[in-house]
Amino acid sequence: MRIAVPNKGRLHDPSIDLLERAGLHLQGGADRKLYADTVDPDVTALFARAADIPEYVADGAAAVGITGLDQVRESGHDLTDLLDLEFGRCRLVVAAPEDGRIETVADLDGGTVATEFPRITRDFFAERGVDAEVVEVTGATELTPHVDMADAIVDITSTGTTLRVNRLTEIAEVLASSVRLVAHPDAVDDEKVQQLVTAFQSVLAAEDRRYLMLNVPEDRLDDVRDVLPGMGGPTVMDVAGTDDVAVHAVVEERAVFGVINDLQAMGASDILVTEIERLVE
């Protein structure tokens, strides 16, 4: 099975990190390579531009790919969205010059819009019955309204800082995007593809969880169960030679601070909190 991975840019390092955490260690690293074998002899990573990955998957050069939802939608290919990988979050928005005449999407009827995403942009305006001319540009999209090339733009934003720096105001959201694991429809049921989905899911499930271990008096066990909700309840084991029991549980990271205070008040000791690499639910 071949998996297409971004070869550079902001999506490259998180994608490689995800593969490594899922146990698909790359042989010889990923620098300046076209492909790399993994520790699984049946899985090879191909490195390509994020914008080209939907084409690789659609053509069957790779069974699955890691790329942004915006790139998948712009490609126009009918790919199966297997999993939101929960990084690379951004939005595709319509923006126009501050204090200009364009205040709503409807104001662009008969106007011109510059973008690196012409397919998505045309579909967006067509769905709203707005007849706007879409001009494809490659880079420096924010400049186009200020040099009379366009009345507005459709571009990617994460924090809105670049828009503000270029004196542009967001008018409407076109698409909320994040990085996805996508597959060729014919590959969805492949056993190795399903194993990959499970591996990635286990990494994502572990990110916001912590493994908690502690000793507590056995007569306080019911109280401990009340403050350790989670995956089927805690695991409880006797501690040899004492009246304590050892309790192991998975808890949400955001709850750890409060849970530890509650457990100490119940007489818990030897509390240990560790990160979880993978969690198969």
Descriptive account of the structure:
With 281 residues, the chain is α/β, with parallel strands linked by helices. The chain folds into three domains: 2-87 and 178-205, D-Maltodextrin-Binding Protein, domain 2 (3-Layer(aba) Sandwich); 90-177, D-Maltodextrin-Binding Protein, domain 2; 208-275, Alpha-Beta Plaits (2-Layer Sandwich), CATH 3.30.70. It contains eight helices and 15 strands. It has a six-stranded mixed beta sheet. Strands 8-7-9-6-10 form a five-stranded mixed beta sheet. A four-stranded antiparallel beta sheet has the order 13-14-12-15. The radius of gyration is 25 Å and the shape is globular.
Give the helices and strands, then pairings.
Blueprint: E1 2-6, H1 12-21, E2 35-37, E3 44-48, H2 53-58, E4 64-68, H3 69-75, E5 80-84, E6 90-97, E7 112-115, H4 118-127, E8 133-136, E9 152-157, H5 161-165, E10 168-177, E11 179-183, H6 191-207, E12 209-217, H7 221-227, E13 235-238, E14 244-252, H8 256-265, E15 269-275
Parallel strand pairs: 1-3, 1-4, 7-8, 7-9
Antiparallel strand pairs: 2-3, 4-11, 5-11, 6-9, 6-10, 12-14, 12-15, 13-14
